[in-house]
Amino acid sequence: MAESDALTSLVTDAGRAIDAAATLDELSDVESTLMGKESAIAAARRGLKDLPADERRDAGRAINEVAETITESIRERRLVLSAAEQDAALAADRVDITQPARVPRRGTHHLVSEVLDEIIDIFASIGYRVARGPEAETDYYNFTALNIPQTHPARLETDTLYLDYRGVGEERTAGDERYPLAHAPNEVLLRTHTSPMQARYMEANDPPVHIVVPGRVFRNEALDPTHSPVFHQVEGLAVDDGITFADLKGTLAYFARQFFGPKQEVRFLPNHFPFTEPSAEMHVSCFSCGGSGCRICSQTGWIEMLGCGMVHPAVLEHVGYDPATVTGFAFGIGADRFAMVRHGITDLRHFFESDLRVLRQFS
Amino acid sequence: MRVTLRWLADFVDIPTDDPKAVADRLESLGHEVESIEPLGAHFTDVVVGRVTEIAAHPDADKVRVCQVDVGGSTSEIICGAWNFEAGALVPVAVPGAVLPGGFEITERTIRGVTSHGMICSGADLGLSDESEGILVLDDSFEIGRSFAEQLPLPDAVFDVAITPNRPDCMSVYGLARELAASYDLPLREVAPDIDTETEAPLTVRLEDPEGCPRYVARQVNGVTAAESPLWLQMRLRAAGVRPISNLVDATNYVLMELGHPTHAFDTDRLGDTIVVRRPTPEERMTTLDGQERALAASDLVIADAQRSIALAGLMGGADTEVDDSTSAVTIEAAYFDAPTVLFMSKRIGLRSEASARFERGVDPNLARLAADRVAELLVSIAGGEVGGIVDAYPAPIEPRHIDLELAEIPRVLGLDLEAAVIADYLRRLGFAVEAGSSLDVGVPTRRPDVTRPIDLVEEIARLHGYDEFPDRVAFGTGGGIGIEERRSRRLRETLVGAGFHEAMTFSFIGEDDLNRLGLPADDVRRDGIAVVNPLHAEEGVMRTTLLPGLLKAAAYNAARQVDDIALFETGKTFMSGGDVIPDQPDVVAFVTVGGEPATWQGPARSFDVFDAVGTWELIARSMRLDDVAIEQADIPPFHPERGARILHRGVTIGAVGEIHPAVAERFGIQGRVTAAEVELASVLADPGLWSFAAPSPFPPAVFDLAFEVPDGSSTKSVLDVVRAADDVEDVHVFDVFRGGSIA
Fold first, then answer.
1. Taking a contact as any Cβ pair under 8 Å apart, which residues of chain A between 28 and 67 contact chain B?
2. What DSSP letter does each residue of B186-217 carry, written as one string?
């Protein structure tokens, strides 16, 4: 009876001591006091051998029950205390997460580069190959091969930058004797468009041809908000059996909707380029006002997008293709203008000044 | 080309008076309308009056007192202009009238005399820019009636951009023809009422019939120089031509109306011989702008027996110019070789309305009609009578014929049109069409642009309307973005990912930029190719290196207080040595100035040579370049002790390091500047496949090793030894100590 009372009070006292432990360390101390070699439990276990044999079994069981109860209480208390300590540690680790972070350095692609890549990707996705050509080009490829002879009126519109360059062992070939002021075909100039690559590519490859030619082009024009001596084009060329004006219209309308948005209307108006016939200019409905007229489209509801046309038979003849069996279309996209129109940039000079306050916006 | 709606309506009954609708129609035909300006009478209560009596003002000697019949009543009006006499018809603003600018007319008393209105000048009414006295009207105006109602208003001016292949549309008549064809309406014929076919007392000699295949000289005698009538002045002004006098205005009017340039010589100052020839050596002439000009053998001139009197198709001479005393004119309407006029105009640096048409090609068979139209107009506005004519046209130019296979239409346009529709389109545009198994098409000589069947196909497409054709996407045969293109994108993305901003600088630099780089005299980069006609001297040479462009860009940003500048560019350089065209290697270059700014986490850090080398190593890794190395070297414009050449497979492909401080200073940059420039050919080339190496199943053993080496030994030489040991996976330099003794 006395034995059992002692055990009961042991459990009660132990419970109190366990609850009183405020830290894991204190709990460990309590644990060794309650369960260690010097503990009442240990002493009780040691006393078992002095009991008569018939009591020993019940007494042992009672001691074990008490020991289990205390151990369980310690385990529960330990869970509670360790959770609290973890919380405290986390609380101590708190930061102001709105402090400036460590942002890995990252630059920006030039907007014109991005637009060039985007145009290339749209055409690559419908099976066109990318080709690139020289920027310093011969008069022949820039003009003559494109049906723009030395005396052609279209030359008037093309203010060309010429280079003081003679190839290794090259003499100036004779121009037109009647017009001594005309340029000779092997004079070197800065290409005024990406179109020379039409002739170079077709000379080197048989039809079918489906290419886009991105690149830098040059004009003798002073830099101002809408003109630059350096700008960028993407030329396109498709030549095959059975290509018609319908292919030109459908392909370019597809491109316009990919680039500007699926709801864009397009229209084609006649125009003139010496290397295409018929020639056209494609307009896209203004993506800013949707066609009702605004500042961006000069109140017309339309934005001039690109020049295009069916490849002129003379161009095909120049490269040794037979215009009676193949036809094709070609187009030229002004990438800088596309970028300006789409992003509301009104001054072309921003593209070439390398002002980081501008470049950083081109993310 | 500026034309008015009413002027167009002289030749075709346009079925709308909405200028926008007409502009849309012109655009659908390929004639871009750049602007539409409405023309109207911006005044009210102005009537036509006749000045019946003029008297001096009793107390003012600069003005006169006029009695003006304004229709049933007479008004007393004071006027300060003196360019009219009694009997003149004039516009009168009556009290209550409002003139342009809101200027209201009231009765005013001037020194005791009351003026009941105002007699108006053209400028007062907004009809001309300059005030040249009172607007004196011709007898066609009705007294007492509103002046505005008797003017050809309202009207609209279209500014039309004519493509260079369509000289025939550089005229009112030409655009009217396009509208008539499009609307399928008749085009009124221009038929001057002239029956004098007698030969003029002139000898015309064409010494260079290739330069001038036709020369028409039509004379008009007994003319009186005066102001042109108001309607004609208004049309010229609308067309952007300043009225001068009836004699000159008549030629300009016909130039705008028919598109054929003509020139009026004063017959009395002209000899009896006209020669069209190439200039003699050393020949000079004074053009009517007063400039004496040296002539070249490739020019073409009009001359009399002694001297040149005009530059063919470009400008008349001062000696034979018409003026107020002229009483007889000889009208030249010629056809000159287009390239001859083009190159003469370019050589002299002079362009005119006439040369703009000749250099694109006018209609040789329109010359006579144009001369006669000027003669007819002169008689009606300057009096006199039509005189004789000489038409030198030794080898008449016949219309070209083109055989058009009907199958070409669907083959090129993707739409089958009926033969009758095709023939109709072409006829409406003035082509002669004979139908058969194919169409035999006669091309009017006004259309130098139509030379082969495809040109007719375009005409058909234009009239049919481009938007009427079907749409179809033409898919390509594949290929897409090739390996070099993809690697070029990876290169740019690597640099962007490393904090660099992509720049695009011009491809030209100045000779001075190469000096600033401090390149030695024999450096290939000094051998830049000159631009023959540069925009500025500082853009006179093609770049042989991208560094000047980037250094200038860095300086631009440094001047704007940007303290972490990191720029790169990829692009072509231009080197002498190519067979026909220059070598144009693609290059990448980058530049940094400044560094990472101080933050709450740490102090600022300046970019130095190891950032540049590290960036290059990042590129090499990202591009999977094998066998790359750097070798410390003194390579201008780099710092002699902080620069290296870059080798790929043993070949030098570029340089990296800090820019020489003196170079940086010459470009206006303070502090350390790092840079690199690398040729891309081998960087972008396909590096081939790489092989996988399975990671070791054993845990690594890490050793800290210290080496003592003589000062001046390169770190690389130590690392090479370590790396050469068996089973070394990675080597990491964790400290470098210089000086003293390690022990």
1. none
2. PPPP--------PBPS-EEEES-TTT-SEEEE
CB B87 within 8 A of CB B68: no
Number of domain units in chain B: 5
Tokens of A196: 């020379």
- Residue A106 has its nearest CB partner, among B496, B577, B584, at B496
Q: Does B602 touch chain A (CB under 8 A)?
A: no
B98 and B158, same domain (yes or no)? no
Task: Count the Cβ atoms, other than its own, within 10 Å of residue B303.
Answer: 22
Q: Which of B346, B458, B467 sits opposite A268 (nearest CB)?
A: B467
> Does the CB of B505 have a partner CB in chain A at under 8 Å?
yes
**A 235-294 residues inside an 8 A Cβ radius of B:** 238, 240, 242-251, 253-254, 267-272, 274, 277-280
Q: pLDDT for A284-342, tens place per residue?
A: 988 778 788 887 787 888 888 899 999 999 999 999 999 999 999 999 999 999 999 88
* Region B672-695 average pLDDT: 95
Q: What separation, in Å, do the N-terminal and C-terminal C-alpha atoms of chain B show?
A: 92
CATH code for the domain in which residue B63 is found: 2.40.50.140
Residues B101 and B144 in one domain: yes
Strand-pairing partners, residue B286, are B292
User: How does DSSP assign A236-252, residue by residue?
Assistant: EEEEETT--HHHHHHHH
Contact list, A103 vs chain B (CB under 8 Å) = none
- The verdict on B636 touching A (C-beta cutoff 8 Å) is no
Q: CA-CA distance, B42 to B148, in Å (whole number)? A: 9
Q: Is B89 helix (H, G, I), strand (E, B) or coil?
A: strand
| Total beta-carbon pairs less than 8 A apart between chain A and chain B | 298
Residue B281 is part of a domain; what is its CATH number? 3.50.40.10
Examine the domain organization and report whether B298 and B240 are in the same domain: yes
Residues B378 and B240 in one domain: yes
Rounded to a whole number, what is the distance in Å from the CA of A197 to chain B's nearest CA?
14
Mean pLDDT of B68-80: 92
pTM of the model: 0.89
Q: What is the pLDDT of residues B446-485, one digit of tens each?
A: 999 999 999 999 999 999 999 999 999 999 998 889 999 9
B398 DSSP 8-state letter: P
> Is residue B182 within 8 Å of residue B374, measured between CB atoms?
no
Residue B130: pLDDT above 80? no
Domain holding B32: CATH number? 3.30.56.10
ipTM of the complex: 0.91
**What b/e readout covers B84-100, taking b as 16+ CB neighbours within 10 angstroms?**
beeebbbbbbbeebebe
Question: A149 to chain B nearest CA, in Å?
Answer: 11
Assess contact for B217 and B274: CB atoms under 8 A: yes
- Side-chain-facing half-sphere of B41: CA atoms under 13 Å: 17
**Residues A272, A276, A278: CA angle, nearest 5 degrees:** 70
Facing residues of B443 across strands?
B400
Alpha-carbon distance of B83 to B105, in angstroms, equals 22
Within this chain, do residues B354 and B245 fall inside the same structural domain, yes or no? yes
C-alpha span between A313 and A309 (Å, rounded): 12
Instruction: Provide the domain limits for residue B28.
Output: 2-40+154-183
Task: Say if B534 falls within a structural domain.
Answer: yes
At residue A1, the pLDDT reads 42
Say whether both B179 and B30 belong to one domain. yes
Tell whether B103 lies on the interface with A, counting CB pairs under 8 A: no
